[in-house]
Design a protein that fits this description.
It is a single chain. This protein is mainly α. The protein has eight helices and two strands. The chain has one domain: Cytochrome Bc1 Complex, Chain D, domain 2 (Orthogonal Bundle). Helix content is 37%, strand content 2%. It has a two-stranded antiparallel sheet. Helix 2 packs across helix 3 and helix 6 packs across helix 8. The longest helix is centred in the N-terminal third of the chain and has 19 residues.
Amino acid sequence: MRTQQIGQGHSSPARAAKPDNVLQTAERSGRGGVMWSRTAATLLLLLWVEHVAAQGLSRQEAYRRAAELTALGQAIFVDPSLSASGKLACASCHSPAHAFGPPNDLAVQLGGADMRQAGVRAVPSLKYLNTDPQFTEHFFDSDDEADESIDNGPTGGMTWDGRADRGRDQARLPLLSPYEMANASAADVAARVARSPYAHDLPALFGVGVFSDPERVFGAVTTALEAYEEDPIFYP
């Protein structure tokens, strides 16, 4: 989920969640950061599989876990019951049929508990998620034909102002924004997930005691969304 509101946007990592050092290795390169590509995402997946295998899972099990986590993220992405209104899903503003952008020509989208709250930022397509460099205040283009001496200023990151660098951090924002899905807390999200048809998938992926802690459930949700939004379908 991407954000349209300054206070908005779309955790505790899973047992086999991607380690920060792997993410940092893949996200950072030179002065300007790295531009995501299919090759980079494939490399990240392979690194993740190696990390998981080192924790006791076979490669086959690690790939299966990645697939299951992505499937869970997709189910969450299209589920309007996770919103206070019961009518707004990530896919409502980021329609898969419209390049993960708005399905209408409204300048901003409506949300909130009453579905009457207008955001103040246009909703972008999510097709750029995996081509964004990590946020930096001083971006130097690293393309072969570019002038690397030119400072392009603040660049990259997720949301319009780049204030989230990881998908799971960005995914928190619209879930709690009063202009979007309008949950009052992580506990609200956890309670809605517990009533969802995919609730039984969480203990298998995040531990049998996951529902004993709302923050763990919230972290599971954002981690699953992050996994789904790293799928090749989100590439331009």
